[in-house]
Amino acid sequence: MTNINGKAYAMNAITPMKSWKTPVLRGFFFILGAFPFLQASLKNLSFIHFARWVIIRHDQFPHLSARQPLEDLHYDYLIFLSNFNGTWNQYIDAFSAVLSSGLNAIWRWSEKFPGSVPVTPFKSYIAQVQFETDYYYNAYPRAATNDVKAALRLQSALNNFAKTSQTLSPAEFETAYLEFIAQVQADLGSTGMAPVGT
Amino acid sequence: MANQSGHIYGLTILSPILESNRLDICHATELRWYLASLPRNHTSPFAQVSSTHFARLVVMDDVVFVGAPAREEHLKSRYLVFETNFDGDLNRYLTRMAVEIPELVNSVWKHCVGYPGLADPNAFIAYMKKCQIETTFFFADVNDKTVQQNLKALQVQSALSRFVERNQGKPASEVQKSFGVLLKRLAEAPDPLPGGIDSEKTAAEDRPYDR
Description:
- The structure holds two protein chains of two kinds.
- By secondary structure, chain A is α+β, with helices and mostly antiparallel strands.
- Chain A has helices at 22-34, 40-45, 88-98, 100-107, 119-129, 145-165, 170-184; strands at 4-5, 8-17, 48-56, 76-85, 135-138.
- Chain B has two domains: 4-130, Alpha-Beta Plaits, CATH 3.30.70; 147-201, no CATH class.
- The longest helix of chain B has 20 residues, at 147-166.
């Protein structure tokens, strides 16, 4: 499936919104961007590499030639593009369980959004508005975003330890090495291909 | 600016796809055939534009009708959605695309309305900006590291994990000496390849610190 590359899944979804509602949603996103602590739940879920929400006004679809017909749309549209780890079901389940109020604040302005809880109608809605990816590139397909963050922490600790490790006596090294390993043990491991899932 | 988080730029492009009056030509289908043939690993064109973390190309056939009482409506053009997450500056990235992966750019955007070609990279950049839709909200989990920094950290993580496993129970002086060798090999190792590797043979070759 082209939606998947290694441990990442590319989701695309588009939902219609009445034009008068989009400024409200823009205001919500502005506040979310201005106060990063409001993104804590999203950050703590820690399975999204990158995600974006893009509002396109009904008259904003690019028109590049007189021969291209002008769009005649009633609705504005919200496009959601996400690069997440895990399967589609895990992603939607986690979103519904952990971020339901945030999701409702974003998609309640879209037509016929059923709410993110209960999860069954929410999944049906997402499946309805999702469209498939034709090509997906991932620079580090063997790593989830948690792997990347663990590797960065470990590298930083290693750089600190490396500065002194070679000037210590063997006995001092043994103590320092064990302390270092104890410090980074949760971030050790190697990456690889994910189990197949959809 | 909502297109950026830290030093990561989130570019969203919607390029209208050409429609032909000839029944035997469908640009959207040809585009899909081409995209299906593109490699997705370290030989991907986007691995060549090495500041790319993630990128996708999607043919959007239409908007979605979610059911009554919503109004049913349709697009008059199909659109190519290009989503990319990269390090640094937009102009520099688009210039790299024009210069370093012209075959991909031509093969994809020749199916799109108003594509000027690559004879003048500035014209290509102007065209892409006309197709750009401002991102309303952009989330990047790690937004202060480049692709190469992430890949190097993953390489270090893998190397250190194997080192710890292999050196359990050995005398401290031996571990210390091996540790010095590991640090030297890691410092001298070539940059890991972006885009991933498919075969175990290549995976082993991508661990120069491990020989």
